[in-house]
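Dear colleague,

As promised, here are the two records you asked about, laid out in our usual form so they can be pasted straight into your sheet.

NAME FIELD: protein one
SEQUENCE, THEN STRUCTURE:
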Amino acid sequence: MTLLSGALGAAVALLSTRQNWAQGTATVAGGAFPLTVRGSDITGVPAALAIVGLAALVAVFAVRRSGRLLVSALLALSGAGTVVATVLGASDSSALDERAAAASGNTAATAAGIGHTVWPYVAAAGGALILLAGLLALRYGRLWPAMSGRYERDGRPRPRKVKPVDPDRPEDIWKALDRGEDPTGPDPAGT
């Protein structure tokens, strides 16, 4: 449930920020000029937080104990941040005003007839799904199995196996020299 909720929420939030969030018109010499802005033009925060949430979602299954708690909290915070950023950007018209100023050539021009779409709220729903995934991971994450530590090293130095130098093989002589051994001296193995 957590993985599905988080992945679906991140996908919805990312796709929603690429859609038109607002439209309006700018007054130019030839009449009204239609303007549209995408969510990523208004704010880049929801898309960035959705990517952070997606990364945290993957990481929550790879870490153990306190690491899982921290990553779960990051997942929940990225979902909450996505919701807040999209709700704040839902009624923002500054990007439309910038487009109107560029289209008319007048820096004081503003957009008229501003309308907003439902896409910011769809992105907020995606953020809510990421938040839900984070809360589920915080609540039940300690009960989930962790990745195996089978292939992890314990930090102890491993003994090196030294092969005897074969004088008939020049590469063995060079390897012995690289290790700092004297290939012409007695055999380190004692033979």
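NAME FIELD: protein two
SEQUENCE, THEN STRUCTURE:
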Amino acid sequence: MPFLHQFRAVPNLLTLLRLFIIPFLVIAILDGRYHLAFALFVLAGFSDGFDGLLARMLSQRTTLGLYLDPIADKLLLSTLFLVLTHMGLVPRYVTVLVFSRDFGILLISTLLFATNTLRDFRPSLLGKLNTLVQILGLTLVLIDQVWPAIDHLLLRRDLLRAIALLAPLSAAQYAWIVLQRVNAPPPQPQ
């Protein structure tokens, strides 16, 4: 499919919708409109799950979608960490660790991609767990603003601590996997 036509693929339109939601989500949080912010976050989450499902069902997997989907996910989560930290709802150290991990991975993968050293950057199991815990933690932070409860505070604190632990661990695992793959002997032709 030609590159410009890839923008018309339904899964990519959903991914673009997720990107379009981000500024409105930020505005809602900064204005203290957490019900709207939570609704937008849920909508973004559904669009993320639904775009992958549609890509498979409609056979509309595209190169654009391959790159755009993870960028939209990271941009959504990173933006939420920043704005929620600004609002005093997420500790700074958690956001710094998340950003450090993501920046390091982005830098390494860009260098490896640009030098043709490595082009396959699948997330590791620990990386997927890290993302899941980030989503759960951010969801609980927003839920606590909409429906405050004391038992949320303990779970929220534990999830944020888990994010702070998983971010550097998953970055280290990613670096280890990349080193192993880069230093592996080339496959022998048969």
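A couple of things worth noting about protein two: The CA atoms of residues 6 and 64 lie 6 Å apart. The chain is about 80% helix and 0% strand.

Best,
R.
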